[in-house]
Amino acid sequence: MEKLQISVIIINFNSALYTIECIKSIKKFAEPNLKYNIIVIDNNSKSVDYENLNLFVNTQSNIKLIRSKLNLGFSGGNMLGIQHTNAEYIYFLNNDTLFLNDCLSILYKFMLTNSNVGICTGQMYNTDMSFHHSFSYFPTLFLKVFGSGILRIFKPQKFPKRKIEYINPLQVDFVTGAAMFVDYSKFSEISGFDTNFFLYCEEEDIALRMKQSNFSVYIVPEAKFIHHMGKSTVRNLDVEKENYISLLYYHRKYSSEIAYILLKLLYFFKNIKKFYKHINYLKLAIFILFGAKMKHSLKHKQKLRID
Question: Would you say 122 and 134 are in contact if contact means Cβ atoms under 8 Å apart?
């Protein structure tokens, strides 16, 4: 397999129209001399959605479509994509994103000149082109209790403001999982994504492990893209539960026992105080109180395709 500069990995799940538009935007802006390819992982979509995507891919160059017989989630799907790449850098890209300029070349050149960086992303915008932050802070107990505003007073560099549009590259805790540009050598050194995460917290986890290995994470505002927020995932009670399964797994992995218990109680009270709005808040609160165990993850409810 020819060594490429960049491999873009996109996961499709019953949203082929978004995936097709995403690919078109990549090709529209990509520098002609850039050596890149696109790997699309179909996460066991319905047959009609997969066939629509397959028809499009068959008309394109440098795209490989792989259909998984099982919905592997975000981490698993991307790790499947990794097995079909041979590139210096990997761009993990949500299918509900659209490039506004040549993000590939901009992020590639930034990484080449900043050898300490493990992950970077561009500046994100909503569908209506309004600004949206593309980074956040690690979900520590101190952050949950005091908030970023108070912590910023003591550590302004660690807690840069999220609601302003930056011009120059900025070091951050972690970047949006919708568009993560990763140095493959560093990514492989920390063993890639933790596939216990099915749908949420992958970006926090991978960034923290990069930090533990002394690699940094940046936003590069020159690269600009749209993210149609939430279009690739339907929110319901099961998905909300998945969010807390991932959060509490993350805290069990990195927090002290006392911090974990306190964080669990914080999430419990966050939901129980809204029980009068909808019964699902009560259900979530109880689910959290009992630990939001990994055994309840959607990961364990997926079925193999047999057609």
Answer: yes
Lowest mean pLDDT among 106-115, 178-187, 227-236: 227-236
Identify the CATH homologous superfamily for domain 4-227. Spore Coat Polysaccharide Biosynthesis Protein SpsA; Chain A (3.90.550.10)
* Percentage, residues of the chain above pLDDT 90: 95
Residue 152 predicted with pLDDT over 70:
yes
296 secondary structure, DSSP code: G
How is the chain split into domains, by residue range? 4-227, 237-301
CB distance 130 to 186 below 8 Å: no
Q: What is the pLDDT of residues 64-94, one digit of tens each?
A: 999 999 999 999 999 999 999 999 999 999 9
CA 30 to mean position of chain CA atoms: 22
